[in-house]
UniProtKB/TrEMBL annotation, chain A:
Membrane topology field: Peripheral membrane protein
Record NCBIfam families: oligo_HPY (TIGR01727)
Listed GO MF terms: ATP binding; ATP hydrolysis activity
Listed GO biological process terms: peptide transport
Identification of the protein by name: Peptide/nickel transport system ATP-binding protein
PROSITE patterns tied to this protein: ABC_TRANSPORTER_1, ABC_TRANSPORTER_2
Pfam families cross-referenced by the UniProt entry: ABC_tran, oligo_HPY
Cited InterPro entries: AAA+_ATPase, ABC_Ni/Peptide_Import, ABC_transporter-like_ATP-bd, ABC_transporter-like_CS, Oligopep_ABC_C, P-loop_NTPase
Family that this chain belongs to: Belongs to the ABC transporter superfamily.
Subcellular localization(s) per the UniProt record: Cell membrane
Record domain ABC transporter: where: 6-255
TrEMBL record, chain B:
Subcellular location: Cell membrane
Ligase listed as a keyword: no
Gene Ontology CC annotations of this record: plasma membrane
Biological process according to GO: transmembrane transport
Protein name: Peptide/nickel transport system permease protein
Record's bilayer topology term: Multi-pass membrane protein
Family: Belongs to the binding-protein-dependent transport system permease family.
Limits of the ABC transmembrane type-1 domain: 95-306
Matching Pfam families: BPD_transp_1, BPD_transp_1_N
Transmembrane segments: 9-27, 99-119, 140-162, 187-206, 241-267, 287-313
Length: 340, 320
């Protein structure tokens, strides 16, 4: 296999709260290859967006340690001037909320034009306009010439997300980061947007990091999946392997909390407790242990590491061997955990 | 855009009409009339009554209002008993002076306020921002008449850098370069006094808008496009932060009228504000009525201007 497109090595992104730094992304290592969709899944607050922002260099006051190798070059902590040469060109991002991700005072066409102009100022304006109209057509926006002169508030959420996608793909990026691209959209539009991202990925042969908490989206889109919990990766595997043979207790809990049509369950499985906040993250031992108190403490590693249990399938901490779901009748006790 | 402006204009017309009714009614509530003070005491009561009848002072108020309005629309506000000249002529001279004072003040307000607000918002919580914010607090706390007096005393009287009164050096030919320079020199100190105090609201407003806009998602989009910081600020943050300032522009004019009343008095500047205070003290009612009406119309036009500016700069407000 050739060099990976993106290789993240021991990335640690910390934010300052008061006098101390707290790591939101802790020792994450990942690779993304060309024409591959890597999904990053996890609950809110698990650090998946912080990870994406670190790659894009969008954190304002974060301390970033480790390496982010993009096509072999380390782009972590790159000075803005150099970073701006690749951002929007080789590396681009689709944001979560299309309603707020566009400048309300600028015509849609000009917002797309900006990313072209910034990276290819020699192209004459008329040519750029021609290309933008093509782009708008490409992302399936009807009446592109008309939309070119419209303002964001004149478009629907789905249309705006298409515009954001058009901005992201305008310079044919090699790596596309999609941060929950469908969360703010309704279900029918979601499917269309996902189809569009997949098509574009195949056309451009680019790598995609798809950040989501929707396992349905993962199953639909991803080649490989990384599951994040509390700033760490707890399991990485090919998508089939992950769905058919999940190992880490967190992955298993996530998957069992999806409602299935064929099962007539009375109640859904829930993961007890909440993701600890940045300040209260456990820094030692198995970070998920607090949310499965019925599991014996001895089964956790002192310093949990990723174990390759089959080729390409990594799981953190040895506790996965001993995990089982609690009995239904323990439900009452578990409420105490949530409240404590 | 035009539809919006026309609609907004149509709303302003009844506002002005209502304003004029209120002003006229208030003026009528004041004790006395033209035949109580300003008249030969030897004239008999019957003769006075006759003259009242002639002058229409015995008519019901709405007839009188109609007559007054008919005059006012044609620019006839009656005669000032103190200056013995047409109110419109008198007021016009003063308005020109006040106009120049306001114009230079507005220039300074934005020339000082915009850069300070931008720096303060961009480098928020840094030392430079703390200094600027400190200045705005002092500005908020200082009454304009105190500041005007102190600056007149220091720069006009003690240091002698600026003239201490009037709007132009006497004896200069209007239209010559010296005349214009002298006018400017007389304007400088009062307008700076107005601007240094008047701009603090603009600074604070702009600062908080910029801090707010900095955290918007579309700023992330701009950065993700690879836009350099300078461009992110100029094209995205600044443009979005300036909206409320632009919207405030019209109201700034109203504030200025209030500001100039004190400042003109302190600097003995022959403007509208100065005339206003004198006329109230002298009970020169026809002048007071005219000035209140002009000020009120100014306020309404200011609000109208604000709305029109906002509709130009913010596409979301335009009516289809």
């Amino acid at each position: 296999m050739s060099n990976p497109l993106l290789e993240i090595k021991n990335l640690k992104t910390s934010f300052r709260i008061g006098e101390e730094y707290y790591a939101a992304v802790d020792d994450v290592s990942l690779t993304v290859n060309e024409n591959e969709v890597l999904a990053i899944v996890g609950e809110s607050g698990s650090g998946k967006s912080a990870l994406a922002f670190s790659v894009m260099g969008l954190h304002n006051r974060a301390k970033i340690e480790g390496e982010i190798l993009f096509k072999g070059n380390d782009i972590a902590n790159l000075p803005p001037k150099k970073l701006n040469k690749i951002r929007g060109k080789e590396l681009s991002m689709i944001f979560q909320d299309p309603l707020t991700a566009l400048n309300p005072l600028m015509e849609v066409g000009r917002q797309i034009d900006e990313v072209l102009f910034l990276h290819n100022s020699k192209l004459p304006k008329a040519k750029r306009k021609e290309y933008i109209v093509e782009l708008l057509e490409r992302v399936e926006i009807p009446r592109p010439e008309h939309v070119y002169n419209q303002f964001p508030h004149e478009l629907s959420g789905g249309m705006r997300q298409r515009v954001i996608i058009a901005i992201a793909i305008a310079n044919q990026p090699e790596l596309l980061i999609a941060d929950e691209p469908t969360t703010a959209l309704d279900v029918t539009i979601q499917a269309q947007i996902l189809d569009l991202i997949r098509e574009l990925k195949n056309d451009l042969n680019s790598g995609v990091i798809l950040i989501t908490h929707d396992l349905g989206v993962v199953a639909e889109m991803a080649d490989r999946v990384a599951v994040m919990y509390a700033g760490q990766i707890v399991e990485v595997a090919d998508v089939d392997m992950l769905f058919n043979n999940p190992q880490h207790p967190y992955t298993r809990s996530l998957l069992s909390s999806i409602p299935l049509l064929e099962d007539e369950q009375d109640r859904l499985h829930v993961i007890h407790g909440i993701v600890p906040s940045l300040k209260n993250l456990p820094r030692e031992g198995c970070r998920f242990s607090a949310r499965m108190p019925w599991i014996d403490d001895d089964v956790h590693e002192e310093h949990p590491e990723l174990h390759e249990i089959s080729p390409g399938h990594f799981v953190r901490c040895t506790c996965y061997k001993h995990f089982y779901f609690p009995e239904e009748n323990k439900e009452d006790q578990s409420h105490d955990i949530t409240q404590s | 855009m035009w539809k919006f402006t026309v609609r907004r204009l149509l709303i302003s017309a009844p506002q002005i009409l209502l304003l004029s009714i209120i002003i006229f009614w208030l003026a009528k509530q004041m004790p006395g009339d033209a035949l109580t003070g300003l008249i030969d005491p030897n004239i008999s009561a019957e003769r006075k009554e006759e003259m009242r009848e002639q002058l229409g002072l015995n008519n019901p108020w709405y007839i009188q209002y109609k007559d007054w309005l008919a005059g006012a629309v044609q620019g006839d506000f009656g005669e000032s008993f103190r200056y013995k000249m047409d109110v419109s002529e008198l007021v016009w001279q003063r308005i020109v002076n006040t106009f120049w004072l306001s114009l230079v003040s507005v220039f300074f307000i934005y020339a000082i306020g915009l850069p300070l607000g931008i720096i303060s918002g961009r480098y928020n919580d840094k030392l430079i921002d703390q200094l600027i914010t400190g200045y705005t607090y002092i500005g908020f706390a200082t009454p304009i008449f105190i500041f005007g007096l102190v600056s007149l005393w220091v720069f006009g009287f003690m240091l002698g850098w600026f003239p201490t009164g009037g709007s132009v050096e006497p004896g200069l030919e209007p239209g010559t370069l010296e005349y214009i320079l002298s006018k400017l020199q007389h304007l400088l100190l009062p307008s700076l006094a107005i601007a240094l105090i008047g701009t603090v609201g603009t600074v604070q407003y702009l600062r908080s808008e910029i801090i707010d806009t900095k955290q918007k998602d579309f700023i992330l989009t701009a950065r993700a496009k690879g836009a350099p910081e300078r461009r992110v600020y100029n094209k995205h943050i600044f443009r979005n932060s300036i909206l409320p300032i632009a919207a405030f522009f019209g109201y700034e004019i109203v504030n200025l009228i209030n500001g100039t009343i004190f400042i003109e008095q302190i600097f003995a500047y022959p403007g509208m504000g100065n005339l206003f205070i004198e006329s109230i003290l002298q009970r020169d009612f026809s002048v007071v009525t005219a000035l209140v009406l002009i000020t009120g119309v100014g306020a309404i036009v200011g609000a109208l201007l604000s709305d029109i500016i906002l509709s130009i700069v913010d596409p979301r407000i335009r009516i289809k």
